[in-house]
Amino acid sequence: MRPFTLERPHDLATAIAFGAADGERTDYIAGGTDMMQLLTDDIRWPGRLVALDDGVLDDRIELGPDGTLRLGAAARMSDVADHPAVRDGFPVISEALLLSASPQVRNMATVGGNLLQRTRCSYFRDPGVPNCNKRSPGTGCAALDGVNRMLAVLGGSEHCIATHASDFAVPLVALGARVRLSGPGGERTLPVADLHRLPGDTPHVETVLAPGELITAIEVPASRAARTSHYLKVRDRASFEFALVSAAVAVDVDGDRIREARVAMGGVGTKPWRMRGVEQALAGARCDLTTFRSAAARAADGAQPRPGNAFKPELMRRAVLRALRTVGGRP
Ligand SMILES: Cc1cc2nc3c(=O)[nH]c(=O)nc-3n(C[C@H](O)[C@H](O)[C@H](O)COP(=O)(O)OP(=O)(O)OC[C@H]3O[C@@H](n4cnc5c(N)ncnc54)[C@H](O)[C@@H]3O)c2cc1C
Ligand code: SF4
Fold this sequence. Notes:
Number of strands: 12
Structural class: alpha+beta
Protein name: FAD binding domain-containing protein
CATH topology of one domain: Enolase-like, domain 1
Strand order of the largest sheet: 4-5-8-6-7
CATH class of one domain: Alpha Beta
Mean pLDDT: 97
Distance between the termini: 51 Å
Number of helices: 12
Largest sheet: 5 strands, antiparallel
Order of helices and strands: EHEHEEEHHHHHHEEEHEEEEHHH
InterPro entries: CO_DH_flav_C, CO_DH_flav_C_dom_sf, Diverse_Substr_Oxidored, FAD-bd_PCMH, FAD-bd_PCMH-like_sf, FAD-bd_PCMH_sub1, FAD-bd_PCMH_sub2, Mopterin_DH_FAD-bd
CATH architecture of one domain: 2-Layer Sandwich
Pfam families: CO_deh_flav_C, FAD_binding_5
Radius of gyration: 20 Å
Bound molecules: flavin-adenine dinucleotide, iron/sulfur cluster
Shape: globular
CATH superfamily of one domain: CO dehydrogenase flavoprotein, C-terminal domain
Keywords: Oxidoreductase
């Protein structure tokens, strides 16, 4: 690990000022479960590390008067997963968190940090590999013709096909959640779906955050669909593993008709991926197996697999079908 200065501000304004002043030379650390790996593996070497753990961000988990779920950015993954309001009103969020990492990691990791964790592309995580545009801009991409089993089939470019690693982000995108941001330019709110950028020819620029801008909270609107929701994660081993393919599905059924459906997938895109085609095939249709099958058939629309992950489109269709059958009561 290279030397750096550690700052422990006591308020949000001071934390923002450090990042705004130093730009690229400053990194933030919350629970530290990803950042510590990046530092010790020599992937990041900030001049200044700013800790967000001393009351800078709140960790409240609360429901607003209209049922909106508000998560302070410092809320721990385990606390959010176990909260009765989350389990009852937003089961897909609780399930996605419980299928992430391990109890020890979830007890430390914050939900703000979860959204901004870096990719698990093995070339990115190995400083011995010289060609990784995300880690060292302009050096090429070892994964394009290398080992790309875990990598993206949607949203990639000729410069990067790294998957976004967060499970938690997938239901947030499906449910239309928003992030509250605070930075040198003041406060703003964004859909979680707009927080991350596609790699294009600048894969090292991963989000729309300005220097010094911090996530302060996540807001998830209440909906009937959110109450009937489910997260399915397909991975190489049953725990402590990232998704090969995952599906967040929320369905509002009225009689025998689907009034509204929300579907997003993880493990397949360079950012969490909303499945608009699947949603359109479900909305207004009969809630039966025939509908689920024809909707799931659209799950891999636009997918561009490489030889190492050519299995993903079929796995995507099967995962969406299984998640729909679970949530729609048609096992
Ligand atoms: C062994 C292991 C297995 C894992 N498995 C999974 C998994 O299956 N699924 C999954 O989704 N995740 C998994 N993770 C990732 C884990 O969920 C993340 O490391 C964790 O959520 C990051 O949160 P943190 O608070 O520790 O963030 P940190 O490590 O402190 O920070 C992560 C990044 O976010 C930035 N940051 C943190 N908070 C803020 C904020 N409020 N505003 C702006 N920037 C901020 C930091 O600067 C840093 O760039 C795994 C991690 C490990 C170590
Ligand atoms: S896919 Fe992205 S992160 Fe992985 S090696 Fe290529 S540029 Fe680097």
